[in-house]
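Posting this for the archive.
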Amino acid sequence: MDRPARRRSTAVIALGAAAALLVGCTGAAEPDPVSTSAAPEATPEPAFTSTYVAPEDFDLAPLTGERIAVGGLAAPSLAAKIDNHPRARPQIGIDRADIVFEELVEGGLTRYVAVWHSDIPAEIGPIRSIRPMDPDIISPLRGIVAYSGGQQRFVDMMRATDVYNAIHGQADTDAVMYRGGGAPAPHNVIVRAPQLIAQHSELAPPQQHFGYAAEAASATAAREGAPASSAALVFGSLATPSWAWDAGSATWLRTMTGGAPDVAAGGARLSAVNLVIVRVPVDVIQDIPTTQMIGSGEAWVLQAGKALKATWSKADRSSPVRLVDANGLAVRLAPGNTWVELVPNAGSVAIG
């Protein structure tokens, strides 16, 4: 909601003057004329009536940088571990997430950590189990995380954070999680998102996650990046998604491994205003690929048909990922949703 245009002031000016000439007329000799003209009145000072309207206050959505009404997003965010197995597609509600992180898991596949705050679908899913890098990704968001379980050591890691853990099978999630009929188990655990968030309305909303420009044209990549129309990514043997710039929608459109358009359950094409590609080390610990999120490395920020080389860093578990340009200045994203691709150093990134 843009600030209202400033209106011009108006002025009302009143002017007045009167003059009269009286001449006597009799049979006698006429006396000399006597002027009876009134002295001119002083011109009053202009009276100004201001019609200026002060700019309306606004807040910024912390996960998209978009303008919202003051106090309009007081609820906590909801992060969820979203399945990306072929049997789990198309996913429910992922097209309405503020931020999506894609990470490598076992078997050369990927899964998502999707985060909703400014736009909450009726349902999201299917959700799957937690992984060792997820506490580092989700902790800066606070709020709620929904998942279907996992190895006890990973569940304990997630529970050790300040994030509320909503786990399928717990007594407190019986009313907000269920197995749907659209896919076989374990690819069918669905979350009633608004109801889950309402159960924990006392939790604080997230803090601002990235830096944002006031508008798309002033985002760092739009101003300083090189022209780019595509990005091809290799996570593993079964995960080779790609993105293409679409000027009509001013977004990057996602294509699945195999070349088919990636769509959500409602039919919407998965897209991103901001595409952030982060190269990360991935260690295999007890047969589990583990993305190392604490550290730094190379990154690209794609926006408005441009690509900007950047550096990412994350100081500790509770800190968000920080992006800086070649001069060490903070990179500002465009207002809108963001996909963060955590591409292994052993994989590849090709930007065309």
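The mean pLDDT is 88. The two ends are 35 Å apart (CA to CA).
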